[in-house]
Amino acid sequence: MKNKIDWMITLLPLCLILVLCFVFFVAPEQSNVVLSQIRFFFGDTFGSYYLIIGLGIFLLSIYIAFSKYGDIVLGEKKEKPKYSFFAWGSMMFTCGLAADILFYSFSEWVMYASDPHIKEMGSIQQWAGVYPLFHWSLIPWSFYLVLAVAFGFMLHVRKRNRQKYSEACRPLLGKYTDKWPGRIIDLLAVFALLAGTATTFSVATPLMATIIQDLFHLTVSRTAINIVILIITCIVYTYSLLHGFKGISRLANLCIYFFFGLLAFVLLFGGQARYIIETGLNSLGTMVENFIGLSTFTDPLRSTNFPQNWTIYYWAYWMVWCVAAPFFIGSISRGRTVRQTILGGYVFGVGSTLISFIVLGNYSMGLQMHGIADFMAQYAKTGDLYGMIVDIIKTLPCAPLVMVAVLFTMIAFYATSFDSIALTASCYCYHELKEDEMPHKTLQLMWCILLILLPIALLFAQSSMNNLQSVSIIAAFPIGIVIVMIALSFLKDAKPKD
């Protein structure tokens, strides 16, 4: 196996991570300033680029699903799916969305409610619940699903042994896939993978730390607890990863039970069921009615910078996650048709995501609108979203038990998403890897450690939400071009014969 290892793809990211970690530890303030400047250049100057790719990929996903491409089986023509719909959907959902879905489900409407753009649009009641649904549903999942069928076709139909981004571009690149253009694409993919992981872990881990602080009345700093959590989870997730797909599948099922159990408890016992359902239905209708307008809004006069601060960040965030999640989804979709993969992904992935934001977001928004609590004032005063979320949970019956449930759900989410990322990154380290062949466990262990270093450095540098977003926006700029190349390569390679 050693002679199969791609040492450039393996060692160059390792060196980059070590350098970045050193910089964040030694010069945290200066590195945050540089991040902000680079983020402004890409997000503000080239914002339309991200929006065009997002809407284009979504429309392409619909075309692929309902055209002759949709009839293609990802495997042999009469092959049956390896996993049941529930097991498949659970793994897809939990690998595609890490624990940050709980952080954002609880808090995102508050960040929008305080944004001047909401006043331009109308009332908080009408719009604060719409944008979370828009930013986490159709376009984000379209990135995953278009690339998942492209990778699934590459792996299960064409039987290619190079599980890399560059290989998915072979129909366009031809002989250049094995030369420097292909090498550059693979390096960009690995860097994007690191950026997505760093952003996710850095955003959501402090919520786990805050819950632990509150449950056990600890006075230790949140940063110290964050680092301890990341080290412990690295050990736990490494153990589960080394047990392969079977272990990941069990974790995914466990995560889904925790997740939907939490949502059911909030809906049934939170006292806001009617408001949650009615506001959720209204927000969903408003999003569908205004979908094209929301997808193309650029704020050309920069009156609020809302798309630059949010929509562009989210599309970039999902682009960098596209390096790991679609490969994993494509791998577990063997035996399904392209149509089943895309539409099933929308049903399970988008459906579960919408339910999370509707239930958890509208619960706290209901308390705000009925005058029971004032989370907007609390956020405006402290700027502490993590403490605010803990206070939201405290309004529920049996609050300590709910906090424990949230903690375990986040751990389960992290486990499945982290494992799928580390597994994908390990596959990248090989020149060739057969479909049924697994990366060496030492290599998987190395990636488990590497993927946790950058989030620790970002947390140590106490990066703001804006700077955490910057990491994804910067990494997504070149990877957006590669995503378009993969989509075009799939259309060319899989073109049905008339």
UniProtKB/TrEMBL annotation:
GO cellular component, one term: plasma membrane
Cross-referenced InterPro entries: BCCT_transptr
GO molecular function, a single term: transmembrane transporter activity
Topology term for the membrane: Multi-pass membrane protein
Coiled-coil annotated residue ranges, if any: none
Segments crossing the lipid bilayer: 7-27, 47-66, 86-106, 138-157, 187-212, 224-242, 254-277, 312-329, 341-360, 401-430, 442-461, 473-491
Subcellular locations according to the entry: Cell membrane
Pfam entry (one): BCCT
Annotated keywords: Cell membrane, Membrane, Transmembrane, Transmembrane helix, Transport
PANTHER family: HIGH-AFFINITY CHOLINE TRANSPORT PROTEIN, HIGH-AFFINITY CHOLINE TRANSPORT PROTEIN-RELATED
Family: Belongs to the BCCT transporter (TC 2.A.15) family.
Official protein name in the record: Transporter, betaine/carnitine/choline family
Source species of the chain: Holdemanella biformis DSM 3989
